[in-house]
UniProtKB/TrEMBL annotation:
Coiled-coil residue spans: 99-159
Tree of life domain: Bacteria
Keyword terms, alphabetized: Coiled coil
One of the Pfam families matching this protein, by short name: Abhydrolase_8
The organism's taxonomic lineage, starting at the top: Bacteria, Bacillati, Actinomycetota, Actinomycetes, Micrococcales
Protein name: DUF1023 domain-containing protein
Sequence ranges assigned to domain DUF1023 in this UniProt record: 321-474
Region (Disordered), start-end ranges: 482-522
InterPro entries: DUF1023
Length: 562
């Protein structure tokens, strides 16, 4: 049963938290800070009391003093992190537990109201259906039954209203604690965040929607925005609602800072180098960037970004007709950007060539989640995490891009599982017009308990297109062996299937030319089975595949090639 609270308008969902885990982490951080203080005492003793003479002794004393001076602010920062976690843990244990304990009662009360409404309607119907020759006793009994039913309904509604009031109070308490924790973490390094900016950081991190972020950002002074950009680029660059050109600049600053600390080891070093190529040589800009997220770095790159004569970014979403989001599947990550970035750029070219005059296309290569491996692909864990992050990106686009723009999300393999969960499982409209699945490992089965409750996946207003190559046994095995994503997207009501087995398709000039079929499961080359045989340039997203040309026509014109 999927319900929405009457005043706050938020879904009735369980608040997930690990009280013991939060407390253990807070205690561990406090122990770490204490160890740091002990180390500082030892180092200061060395600085002030190490016996001996000579340059070596003086050097050791000096170094000990320097390290001791650095340890103190670090231990203070760790203490603040521990305090923020402890405060949040206490609040979420108090309010989250109350809210969660009320869910079953609210659902039962809601069912009782529905039953009482049915009983009242039945009693009213029976009273209204009395014949003209009904006896006074029959009339009195019917009126009494109708009154009793109305009284029972009023009681049930009051009981439900009281429960909702309690739940919303608990939810507000948890939400306030969550906002406070975010603000505390955002301001954790007092030396890093000037006092004049802490209120702005708190407001931005506490905002609940891209529209709210945009309003807060617009209300800042030019100096405040410039200071935030220079001191907290990693925050600004990932905030949905901040203007995209500003986010691109912020993420370039974060990228430069990250590169200044390299090397980090593989695979991150290679991923960072490829990101640099995409930005410097391939008209790419970072829409999202979390280089040190574990277990893998995440990010998203927008392709088709240009700069004016002064070198300033031109808003890539201004005046376009199509925005496309490519979502990778199993084993995908920033290391795949050379191939996926190429597909993004080619999709822009072919969509603009296939579309009517004035068609403008922007494509995002999205790697915003920990993609699954062979051990986790069968579950919904990665999809649930990815859908939450993808939903944020899509809400940002829905706010920041004109409503006249057609938004298409293209998922390969498990990427379709993630994309369909994000769109079909959202409690609000994300502004997506088309969902395209290629080589799908299966999409969510009707509903997903931790995402939509008992309500079915809802793709209302979204056009669905899907294709699986005849020889793609990997996709079919992924669907068949799954726990939660065993639905073939081609079987969804209203879905349109398209071919990926080769033939002819329009060139950029509109003349027919041969296109290749996809022999297996690859997005580009290789990986056409679990054990693989090497194929090149014939995956679902390779420029000269039938699948890719169909995708280009779908995003441009809303139909498959004939």
């Amino acid at each position: 049963m999927s319900l929405t609270s009457p005043e706050l308008g938020v879904p009735l969902e369980r608040i997930d938290y690990d009280e013991g885990g939060i407390e253990a982490l807070s205690d561990a951080l406090r122990d770490l800070a204490e160890d740091g203080r002990d180390a500082g005492v030892v180092l200061r003793n060395i600085d002030g009391g190490l016996e001996g003479r000579g340059e070596a002794i003086r050097s050791v004393q000096s170094d000990a003093g320097d390290v001791a001076g650095r340890i103190t602010p670090t231990t203070q920062m760790v203490d603040r992190i521990a305090a923020a976690l402890k405060s949040y843990g206490e609040a979420v244990a108090q309010h989250g537990r109350v809210a969660n304990d009320l869910i079953d009662d609210i659902e039962a009360a809601h069912a009782a109201v529905e039953s009482a409404e049915a009983s009242a309607a039945t009693a009213d119907g029976e009273m209204g259906g009395l014949s003209d020759d009904a006896t006074s006793r029959e009339v009195a009994l019917a009126e009494e039954a109708a009154a009793d039913a109305e009284d029972a309904l009023a009681r049930r509604r009051t009981e439900l209203s009281d429960l909702w009031e309690q739940w919303e109070a608990a939810y507000r308490g948890w939400d306030a604690a969550y906002d406070a924790a975010l603000a505390a973490m955002a301001n954790i390094d007092h030396a890093y965040v000037p006092a004049s900016l802490r209120a702005s950081v708190t407001a931005l991190t506490s905002a609940d929607s891209p529209a709210e972020v945009a309003a807060i950002w617009a209300g800042l002074t030019d100096d405040e925005r410039a200071d935030l950009l220079s001191t907290r680029p990693e925050l600004v660059g990932n905030l949905e609602g901040v203007p995209y050109p500003v986010r691109f600049e912020a993420n370039r600053l974060t990228y430069a800072d990250t590169m200044a600390g390299a090397p980090y080891g593989e695979p991150l070093d290679s991923q960072l180098l490829q990101l640099g190529i995409e930005m410097d040589s391939n008209d790419g800009e970072l829409l999202m960037f979390h280089p040190f997220e574990q277990p893998q770095a995440t990010g998203a790159v927008v392709y088709g970004v240009t700069r004016d004569a002064e070198g300033n970014v031109v808003d890539p979403f201004e005046g376009v007709t199509n925005v496309n989001v490519l979502v990778g599947g199993m084993f995908s990550g920033l290391g795949d950007l050379e191939a996926w970035g190429g597909s993004a750029r080619e999709l822009n070219r072919y969509a603009e060539a296939y579309g009517a005059d004035g068609t403008g296309s922007i494509t995002i290569a999205w790697y915003g989640y920990d993609s699954p491996n062979l051990l986790t692909e069968a579950t919904m864990g990665s999809a649930t995490e990815g859908a939450a992050r993808l939903s944020e990106t899509l809400r940002g686009l829905d706010h920041g891009v004109s409503s006249s723009v057609t938004t298409s999300v293209i998922g390969h393999s498990y990427g379709s599982t993630t994309a369909f969960l994000a769109v079909g499982g959202s409690s609000s409209d994300l502004g997506v017009d088309r969902l395209i699945a290629v080589g799908s490992a299966g999409v969510p089965d009707g509903y997903h308990a931790s995402w939509t409750g008992d309500e079915p996946m809802d793709y209302s207003g979204v056009e669905i297109f899907a294709s699986r190559a005849p020889g793609d046994g990997v996709a079919r095995f992924g669907e068949w062996s799954s726990f939660g994503h065993g639905t073939d997207p081609e079987s969804i009501d209203g879905a349109t299937s398209f071919e990926s087995d080769g033939g002819t398709a329009p060139s950029l000039e509109g003349t027919p030319e041969p296109v290749v079929g996809t022999p297996g499961h690859a997005s580009h080359d290789g990986g056409n089975s679990f054990w693989g045989w090497w194929e090149e340039d014939n995956g679902y997203l390779s420029r000269d595949s039938e699948s890719f040309r169909n995708i280009a026509n779908i995003v441009a014109n809303g139909e498959v090639l004939q």
